[in-house]
Amino acid sequence: MIVLQILVLFISISFFFYGLGCFFSPKMYKEFERFGLSPIQRKLTGFFQVAGALGLLGGYYFMPLVGFLAAIGLILLMSLGFGVRLKIKDNFVQSFPSLFFALLNLFVAFRFYSLFELY
Fold this sequence. Notes:
Elements: H1 2-24, H2 26-35, H3 39-61, H4 64-87, H5 92-114
Helix pairs in contact: 1-2, 1-3, 1-5, 3-4, 4-5
Main location: membrane
Keywords: Membrane, Transmembrane, Transmembrane helix
Membrane topology: Multi-pass membrane protein
């Protein structure tokens, strides 16, 4: 359970601040332009990252189903991000974080799933 707690905190903090950056960081604006994505896509990405971060925390502290769904959403988001990185031909170092976070969230989703009460 401590591994799940550490991962949820790490992932939540990471996504929360990255998501806020999508709204407020000029550097992030330029990155999304480089990705070939629109301002609305940047804002949606930020929204889903903040929502995912809060969902993971809510899932850990209140309802595992919420955490499971948040982790699945973040897996999808990071898989799409990895695809964008491959499409624009970013190198391994630039592309790896999205793949890494997709895999971390996959592990977290399985851990949340194991907490479901099946009765």
